[in-house]
Amino acid sequence: MEPKAIVYTSNTGFTAQYAALLAKKTGLHAYALNEALEKVPEGSAVIYMGWIMAGKIQGFITAAKHYQVAAVCGVGMNPTGSQLTTVRQVNSLGADMPVFTLQGGLNMDKLHGFKKLILKSIGGTMGRQLMAKQDRTPEEDAILDMFRNGGDRVSMQNLKDVIAWYEQETGKKL
Questions:
Q1: How many other CB atoms are there within 10 angstroms of residue 92's CB atom?
Q2: DSSP code string of 100-162
Q3: CB 3.0 to 4.6 Å from 36: which of 31, 96, 110, 151, for a disulfide?
């Protein structure tokens, strides 16, 4: 099914950045979910992008009620391509649904209330565990750096699998 739009939910801006990059590459319009509900016809095929919290892709349930979701992209702090099994399970996504995970970033200044408190707690615990680990992977070093210093890992390179899927799905070479 050929997507007609990109619909997204963003908390601190990283998912919105990915939606804009993908829109520029594909020529599709990108809409925040609330805007899409007014502008994208019900039942349209869309690529849905949402931020991940505890494996759950935020806004996905609402998007799936209104649109035919052709592919799902979850944006979180973990490396691109990781957590696929967890994201599929938590969001009840079958094996036939194309699912992609993308590393976004962390900006504590844009978090508020409970989300900020939880992330600070997780960051402290995870940071101590990673610091004590002798044989950290480059991905673990990147996550530790993100918890310590924040950061933006959004890149076109992280979208390469999504773009390859889109090209296969649509027959268009980007």
A1: 10
A2: EEEE-EE-GGG--HHHHHHHHHHHHHHHHHHHH-SS--HHHHHHHHHHHH-EE---TGGGHHH
A3: 31
Confidence of residue 129 (pLDDT cuts 50, 70, 90): confident
Q: Which residues pair with 146 in a beta bridge?
A: none
Phi, psi of 74 (to 5 degrees): -105, 135
What SS3 state is found at 68? strand
Angle between helices 160-170 and 14-26 (to 10 degrees): 40
Torsion 13-17-20-23 (CA) sign: negative
119 contacts 143 by C-beta, under 8 angstroms = no
DSSP 77: S
| Average pLDDT of the chain, as a whole number | 89
Residues 6+ apart with CB under 8 A from 111: 11, 12, 119
Q: Which tokens sit at 109?
A: 């200044």
Angle between helices 138-149 and 113-132 (to 10 degrees): 140
Cα 173-167-94 angle, rounded to 5 deg: 180
Q: What mean pLDDT comes out for the span 76-92?
A: 92
Task: Give the Cα separation of 170 and 2 in Å (integer).
Answer: 6
Compute the distance between CA of residue 16 and CA of residue 12 in angstroms, rounded to an integer. 8
Does the predicted TM-score (pTM) go above 0.90?
A: no
